[in-house]
Write a structure and sequence with these properties.
Number of strands: 2
Number of helices: 7
Structural class: mainly alpha
Strand order of the largest sheet: 1-2
Strand content: 5-15%
Oligomer: single chain
Distance between the termini: 50 Å
Helix content: 55-70%
Order of helices and strands: HHHEEHHHH
């Protein structure tokens, strides 16, 4: 599971509390993956039950104690194994737009074409945000983190470009199907 291993990877850098884990996760992959605090703490509880992390309590003035999590040797071994193993499954086509397309009224291709056009605009805006992030990244100090962030941004751009190509194909086929019915 990616969340489990992402948290282990962040903890492998240094001990952190839940808020720091979320901030680090968001900084590294937040552009592509939204994670809420509930997911963080649920995953940390599982990791602790599996013996992959432990926690100590840190006393705070005028606030409740907070848990500082550390990766265990077993957690480091699990992380190393995960990092060295290729992803077994090809990315699933589990897309909300696709589900909408499946259930839309095929006798009303105009509505489908409008939706396709609107979706393409959203992907183009997303690509613009990713490109702006890449430009901003170039001004940051060059490090391994900026390289991996740039690679992630490139992946996002390639996926969005592929989605736009697929939407264009859908649009073409809907128009051809509509023209054949007339």
């Amino acid at each position: 599971m990616a969340i489990k291993h992402a948290l282990l990877a962040i903890l492998a850098q240094r001990d952190r509390h839940g808020y720091e884990l979320k901030s680090c996760f968001d900084e590294k992959v937040g552009e592509f993956w939204s994670l809420n605090f509930g997911q963080i703490y649920t995953t940390l509880n599982r990791l602790e039950a599996e013996g992959l992390v432990v926690h100590d309590r840190e006393t705070q003035e005028k606030r409740p104690d907070r848990k500082i999590f550390s990766i265990t040797p077993e957690g480091r071994a699990e992380l190393a194994q995960w990092l060295a193993t290729p992803v077994g499954k090809v990315r699933a086509l589990r897309d909300e737009f696709f589900v909408k397309l499946v259930f839309m009224d095929k006798d009303n291709p105009a509505a489908i074409l409008v939706l396709i056009d609107q979706q393409k605009v959203l992907y183009l805006r997303h690509m613009n945000r990713l490109t702006q992030r890449k430009i901003a990244l170039k001004s940051e100090a060059d490090s391994g983190d900026t390289l991996t962030t740039e690679l992630l941004l490139d992946a996002g751009l390639f996926h969005a470009e592929a989605d736009i190509k697929w939407l264009t194909l859908c649009e073409t086929k809907m128009k051809v199907g509509r023209d054949n019915k007339e």
